[in-house]
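In response to the reviewer comment on reproducibility (Comment 2.3), we provide here a single inverse folding case reported in full, input and output, so that an independent group could reproduce the run without further information from us. The structure tokens appear first.
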């Protein structure tokens, strides 16, 4: 019996020093798929490798041997002894494996719940498996259902709506202030990691980006990365005349932007509002700046409050997402169970077709010369009769696919239609396997 198996590690089960061993080589996914394809114990396989997870999804009839193959593969890919990472592995089978890939695809299993990047990574892993010809009937269906689940979660819940990182929250706050950030001028003061994360989100919103940093080279690098404009630290005061939003994230020990500095440019701004979002610790913007007219200052504590509220909202939305996942797991399980009756259904159709072809052959010998059109009509008539006769038995088998009596019903059907007496059938109808049409499924 075919089983779905998922073996891997993620940010919760394995430290980064273990995970990075398996992802440091860019060609590892290709090597993994080649190994899965060559394994005699694996019928289908997909390999997902990101900075936060390394997982193999396979279809197998021998879970124990398949697991050994995957562990050996991971050991080889990471040049690491299996005893070092086996304690970090998780293993899911059948419904648990299906549930897991659905949760991964819709970001319920991510470090930041609701982040959209993982779906793209799962789609890329499936694309590579398809190109390597390691996916088949089961994995193809499974992955398409996973993408469907992710779409349902995205459209039916708000799990991705709220910012849960400080940098993203800063940009979301700016978006709420201006409603539309397209064309707004934003000055990034500082060019560290948090500034870079904020810049990514700002560029997606269509902002005009300016980058200032004490080290100009770093400002130039960050500005070039996002199509912005680098400016010297000394130019910052003059830039305040033009900016709509200023996001600060330096590591300076004292205030970078002071009360008097901002006050001196306000009159020339002609009452246009100026927003400061200070995500630095210690703070970059002097608190008294917030007392000035048409100037608004938000510091990291304000943003943390937003983040915590948003995390609570995401957790609430995650409950809806989990319900969707469970619904889809049940649907996939029902489909998977129908595969158990497929060989019998195929045999039924083939037997009906064998009988039909034999009787048409006998009839044609006795009917004399018929035109091609008459022969075609005879073919259509007999095929239609055969399909209608087989319709109810096939429907019966499909209905029994997910029930405890399935095996007994399959056995009874095979006996009633004599599906396991292939030689007797051939002798009765005077046909060899070469001239009887479709071959029986193995």
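Designed residues, in position order:
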């Amino acid at each position: 019996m075919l089983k779905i198996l998922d073996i891997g590690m993620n940010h919760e089960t394995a430290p980064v020093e273990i995970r990075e061993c398996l992802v440091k080589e860019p060609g590892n996914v290709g090597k993994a798929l080649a190994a899965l394809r060559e394994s005699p114990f694996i019928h289908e396989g997909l390999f997902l490798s990101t900075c936060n997870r390394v997982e193999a999804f396979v279809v197998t009839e021998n879970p124990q041997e398949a697991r050994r193959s995957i562990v050996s593969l991971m050991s080889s890919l990471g040049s690491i002894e299996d005893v070092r990472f086996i304690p970090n592995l998780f293993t899911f089978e059948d419904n648990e494996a299906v549930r897991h890939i659905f949760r991964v695809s819709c970001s319920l299993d991510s470090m930041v719940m609701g982040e959209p990047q993982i779906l793209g990574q799962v789609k890329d892993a499936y694309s590579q498996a398809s190109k390597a010809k390691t996916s088949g009937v089961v994995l193809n269906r499974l992955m398409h259902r996973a993408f469907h689940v992710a779409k349902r979660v995205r459209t039916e819940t708000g799990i991705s709506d709220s910012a849960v990182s400080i940098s993203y929250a800063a940009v979301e706050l700016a978006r709420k202030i201006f409603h539309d950030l397209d064309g707004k001028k934003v000055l990034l003061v500082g060019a560290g990691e948090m500034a870079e994360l904020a810049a990514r989100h700002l560029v997606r919103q269509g902002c005009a980006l300016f980058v200032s940093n004490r080290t100009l080279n770093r400002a130039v690098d960050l500005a070039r990365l996002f199509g912005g404009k680098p400016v010297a630290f000394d130019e910052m005061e003059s830039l305040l005349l033009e900016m709509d939003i200023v996001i600060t994230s330096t590591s300076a020990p004292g205030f970078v932007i002071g009360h008097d500095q901002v006050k001196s440019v306000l009159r020339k701004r002609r009452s246009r509002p100026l927003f400061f979002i200070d995500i630095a610790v210690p703070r970059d913007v002097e608190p008294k700046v917030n007392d000035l007219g048409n100037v608004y200052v938000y510091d990291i504590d304000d943003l943390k409050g937003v983040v915590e509220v948003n995390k609570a909202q995401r957790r609430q939305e995650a409950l809806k997402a989990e319900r969707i996942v469970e619904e889809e797991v049940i649907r996939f399980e029902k489909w998977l169970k129908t595969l158990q009756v497929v060989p019998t259904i195929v045999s039924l159709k083939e037997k009906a077709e064998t009988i039909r072809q034999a009787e048409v052959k006998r009839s044609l010998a006795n009917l004399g010369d018929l035109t091609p059109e008459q022969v075609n009509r005879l073919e259509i008539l007999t095929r239609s009769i055969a399909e209608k006769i087989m319709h109810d038995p096939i429907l019966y088998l499909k209905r029994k696919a997910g029930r405890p009596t399935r095996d007994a019903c399959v056995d009874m059907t095979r006996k009633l239609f004599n599906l396991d007496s292939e030689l007797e059938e051939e002798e009765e109808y005077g046909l060899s396997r070469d001239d009887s049409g479709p071959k029986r499924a193995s």
